[in-house]
């Protein structure tokens, strides 16, 4: 009966995690390198060329190009969410080997840590190519970490476990440069431990080490890595001496890499200290595997990245999972109501972050729908030189939860059948043009025909934002305006400002963007803007 309850609790936690991940995944359009990897497909000659000239990440390239062959966003999202629950499940399994591990609490804590402290959530998790390079490979490494734990803990390995160990060894070895180096080092230590200390599982440990090493050599030995390193982009890094690289790494890179991880590291260290005090300074297997080993792994990744010419925040994705292990283990050792309360509070904070991500991605999803509609409209009119606004994110809990904003304009044009696509930054959330009421104000100058302007507004994290757009009757009249007199009548009174404005073009329409102090514009009764010396007033009827 208890076993069934444990299974239900595990199923509930994993299903909850999966639903959160899937809900975000379906909002992410094709972005950045997705277009080129989708075109690469499963053509082996293309992957070979890529391996020889760009990168040794065959595993990640094959995963991303395979997922991208599906046209359905639902199918892509269903597949791309699986590594999330794999991470949480195998963290639960690792903790279970050495300590009490609640099947409801451990996965939820692991996921919350991953979501809250991830250095670049959008680029590691909710973008197909980024996910293949970081989320999927991290999942493979955590599965192989569990395999190493089995090899050094159990007296006998079953055939099923042996197959999982071998498969995860290859996949972890081929993962990503720093992570695979850690996996090879960990499997080498397991090999020495089993041969010279425990004298068990020697054959399987040896084979798994060799498979992991082969995967690592395939990854780092790719000719494409040398070609890429020889580019002018990395010339300054190549010219540095070893001590210069160390100084640069710790003074420039580490503060950026540790932006969010430092909080998880502090919590993990606190959990370790609590455990040591509670265990009365006794060193056991659980002390090493659940507390000391994660900090060794953390230190290894930080040090090995000294030798990497490029270390974006996403390159330390695996550390969010490694540092979650001591936190999960420590919370599970608390009394029932304390650990339930702590888990509840952590999950609540995670859900606040999740709601911000969902809100922002939902707005960008609408932006993508608008972009696609505009592209199809232009092509139907036989216009093949198309200008698109860049995606604009807002309302984030953490700054780096957005995905990669690089736009491969050539591949976008090729995908949609255009001759040329130009993507232009606009620094405004233009999704509100589609979802908010579109008000119109008019100027009648007597001698000329009436001019009409569209008025849209929304509230962002810091300001109220006004979007004043040209219509057919007012084309070319707001291009040169740099300051706007604005009057907003709300329940609390009339607010008047003379403010600088931005001129932007969205979908071949000119707009003025005016950011005003937060005055509750969503509850305004009347808005007046002065355009070319004439007042344009709109009454807001709700």
Q: How large is the count of helical segments?
A: 21
What is the multimeric organization of the chains shown?
single chain
**What is the domain tally?**
3
Range of helix content: 55-70%
> Which structural class should the secondary elements be placed in?
alpha+beta
| DSSP E strands, number | 10
Quote the average pLDDT. 92
Low-confidence segments, ≥5 residues, pLDDT <50? none
Largest beta sheet: strand ordering: 3-4-5-8-7-6-9-10
What's the Cα radius of gyration? 27 Å
Q: In what range is the share of β-strand residues?
A: 5-15%
CA-based shape: globular
| End-to-end separation | 58 Å
Please summarize the sheet with the most strands: 8 strands, antiparallel
Keywords: Membrane, Transmembrane, Transmembrane helix
General description of the model:
Helices cover 58% and strands 13% of the residues. With 542 residues, it is an alpha+beta fold. It has an eight-stranded antiparallel beta sheet with strand order 3-4-5-8-7-6-9-10, with no helix packed on it. A two-stranded parallel ribbon has the order 1-2. The mean pLDDT is 92. It is built from 21 helices and ten strands. The radius of gyration is 27 Å and the shape is globular. The protein folds into three domains: 2-223 and 233-357, no CATH class; 358-424, no CATH class; 432-539, Immunoglobulin-like (Sandwich).
């Amino acid at each position: 009966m208890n076993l069934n309850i444990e299974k239900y609790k595990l199923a509930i936690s994993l299903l909850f995690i999966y639903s959160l991940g899937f809900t975000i995944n379906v909002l992410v359009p094709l972005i950045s390198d997705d277009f080129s990897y989708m075109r690469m497909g499963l053509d082996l000659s293309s992957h070979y060329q890529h391996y020889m000239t760009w990168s040794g990440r065959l595993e990640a390239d094959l995963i991303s190009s395979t997922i991208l062959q599906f046209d359905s966003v639902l199918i892509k999202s269903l597949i791309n969410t699986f590594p999330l629950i794999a991470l949480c499940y195998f963290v639960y399994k690792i903790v279970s080997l050495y300590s009490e591990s609640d099947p409801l609490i451990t996965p939820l804590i692991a996921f919350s840590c991953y979501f809250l402290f991830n250095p670049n959530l959008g680029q590691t998790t909710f973008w197909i190519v980024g996910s293949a390079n970081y989320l999927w490979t991290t999942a493979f490494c955590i599965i192989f970490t569990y395999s190493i734990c089995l090899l050094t803990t159990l007296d006998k390995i079953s055939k099923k476990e042996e197959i999982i160990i071998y498969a995860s060894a290859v996949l972890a070895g081929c993962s990503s440069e720093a992570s695979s180096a850690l996996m090879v080092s960990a499997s080498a230590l397991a090999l020495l431990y089993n041969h010279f200390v425990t004298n068990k599982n020697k054959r399987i440990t040896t084979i798994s080490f060799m498979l992991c090493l082969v995967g690592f050599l395939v990854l780092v030995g790719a000719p494409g890595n040398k070609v890429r390193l020889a580019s002018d982009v990395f010339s300054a890094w190549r010219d540095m001496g070893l001590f210069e690289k160390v100084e640069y790494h710790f003074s420039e890179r580490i503060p950026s890499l540790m932006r969010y991880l430092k909080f998880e590291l502090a919590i993990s260290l606190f959990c370790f200290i609590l455990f040591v005090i509670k265990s009365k300074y006794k060193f056991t297997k659980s002390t090493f595997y659940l507390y000391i080993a994660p900090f060794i792994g953390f230190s290894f990744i930080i040090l090995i990245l000294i030798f990497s010419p490029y270390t974006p925040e996403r390159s330390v994705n695996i550390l969010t999972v490694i540092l979650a292990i001591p936190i999960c283990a420590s919370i599970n050792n608390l009394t029932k109501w304390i650990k339930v309360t702590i888990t509840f509070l952590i999950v609540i904070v995670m859900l606040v972050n999740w709601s911000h991500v969902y809100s922002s991605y939902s707005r960008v999803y609408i932006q993508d729908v608008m972009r696609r509609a505009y592209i199809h409209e232009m092509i139907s009119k036989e216009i093949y030189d198309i200008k698109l606004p860049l995606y604009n994110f807002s309302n984030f809990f953490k700054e780096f939860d957005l995905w990669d904003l690089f736009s491969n304009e050539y591949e976008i044009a090729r995908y949609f059948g255009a001759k040329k696509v130009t993507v232009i930054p606009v620094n405004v959330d233009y999704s509100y043009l589609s979802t908010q009421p579109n008000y119109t104000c008019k100027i009648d100058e007597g001698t000329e025909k009436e001019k009409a302007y569209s008025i849209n507004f929304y509230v962002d994290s810091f300001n109220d934002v006004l979007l004043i757009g040209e219509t057919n009757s007012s084309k070319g009249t707001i291009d040169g305006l740099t300051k706007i007199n604005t009057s907003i009548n709300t329940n609390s009174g009339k607010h008047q400002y003379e403010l600088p404005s931005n001129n932007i073009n969205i979908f071949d329409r000119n707009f003025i963007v005016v950011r005003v102090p937060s005055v509750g514009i969503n509850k305004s009764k009347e808005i007046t803007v002065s355009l070319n010396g004439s007042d344009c007033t709109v009454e807001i009827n709700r």
